[in-house]
Design a protein that fits this description.
Helix content: 55-70%
Shape: globular
Radius of gyration: 24 Å
Structural class: mainly alpha
Order of helices and strands: HHHHHHHHHHHHHHHH
Oligomer: single chain
Strand content: under 5%
Number of strands: 0
Largest sheet: none
Length: 375
């Protein structure tokens, strides 16, 4: 509960930071900033201090935005749903891994290193601090901003590729003259004019319309953000639809995660607190399979049909079936372990796959603004 306010604030701010500085630097910065309260965890001695610590650790939840924005820039729209869903699935599965890994480290320090429990839990926090710091530094030192290099030069890179590569267009205009010029348009980013030498070459035999060139580049160039452009993107019906879909799917995951352990403990008291927590962690751990599955299925349907409606129908259908399973669990209130786990697993598939299907649709909505905090 205490992490959610900062969680949401950082996610909103991370989108604008991605537009300005690039997803890689934003990602690394959030990891480093989030590592600070993690390192300070051993110094906490009071309940208010623990609440404040939990609040600021929520900064790490904002890394989801630059992660998705960064991945989007490296993959074509035909496979980007699978790519983003796989990354998101592995990321959310990390929450499930943590349920098992941190207690295991704690137990090892107590039993093998003979530390007291009071000291052991504090030492345990050194592990996430090291992982966060090493990962952030590795990203800064070894990873590129975009497939072509620096974030600041992405518009120039796009212009250069447009001038050198062969581009297929579904329709052509009849050539009326050997030397044809098409009207250029200026992007807000670096005032780049998409007027290629190839289209002006005498004797080319074709005249390429400007909009075709813009469409070809729209997946590779993110426009410089403006207040009007951001408002237009955020308040458009397609964006609002995805916001509601994400709110329902990922919101369901957050709600289930917050109550599932206690629900298992109530219905299956013989599991104990640890056993109930471990079984509840499985819901998160399934993200590593089910969320990528949603993106993979969505991309496969899109490649097969060529229609965005196929992606939309899949997303909404999974969400509706999810609601059915949740109603069955709530009304039936199973006390048989196999029945409970089967229903929860089915609900997990629908919830996480529908969430993955949302990611596969995001890149189709305002592609030149695809680093906005929509995710």
């Amino acid at each position: 509960m205490f992490r959610d306010p900062i969680f949401l604030i950082v996610r909103l701010g991370a989108g604008s930071a991605c537009d300005r500085f690039g997803p890689r630097k934003t990602f690394a910065a959030l990891l480093l900033v989030g590592a600070i309260p993690t390192a300070l965890a051993p110094t906490i001695t009071t309940a208010p201090g623990l609440v404040a610590l939990r609040f600021f650790i929520g900064i790490l939840g904002g890394t989801f935005v630059p992660c998705q924005a960064w991945i989007t820039g490296f993959y074509d729209k035909n496979v980007v749903g699978a790519a983003t869903a796989i990354a998101a699935g592995i990321g959310n599965a990390g929450g499930g891994v943590t349920y098992f890994l941190m207690p295991a480290i704690f137990e090892s320090l107590v039993r093998r290193q003979h530390l007291t429990e009071h000291v052991a839990w504090r030492v345990t926090f050194a592990v996430p601090f090291i992982l966060l710091t090493v990962t952030a530094l590795a990203m800064l030192l070894t990873c590129p901003d975009t497939p072509t290099g620096k974030w600041s030069s992405r518009a120039l890179d796009t212009q250069r590729r447009l001038e050198t590569r062969d581009t297929y267009f579904s329709t052509f205009k009849d050539s009326k003259a050997n030397a044809s010029h098409f009207e250029s348009r200026t992007f807000s980013e670096d005032n780049i004019k998409l007027d290629t030498a190839r289209s002006r070459r005498p004797g080319s035999g074709t005249s390429v319309h400007e909009q075709d060139m813009l469409d070809a580049a729209s997946w590779e160039l993110v426009e410089k953000p403006t207040y009007f452009g951001t408002a237009n993107a955020v308040l458009s019906l397609p964006t609002l639809t995805l916001i509601v879909a994400y709110f329902c799917t990922f919101g369901t995951e957050l709600c289930v995660n917050s109550i599932l352990g206690a629900y298992y403990a109530k219905n299956f008291p013989y599991l104990g607190q640890t056993g109930s927590g471990n079984w509840a962690a499985m819901f998160n751990l399934l993200n590593i399979v089910f969320r990528p599955a949603g993106g993979l299925i969505s991309d496969a349907i899109y490649r097969s049909t060529g229609s965005l409606w196929a992606k939309k129908i899949l997303m909404h259908s999974l969400a509706v079936v999810l609601g059915v399973f949740l109603l069955v669990v709530g009304l039936k209130n199973p006390h048989d372990k196999a029945t409970m786990m089967g229903l929860v697993t089915a609900a997990a598939f629908c919830q996480e796959a529908s969430n993955g299907a949302v990611f596969s649709l995001v890149v189709h909505v305002h592609p030149r603004s695809n680093v906005r905090p929509l995710r």
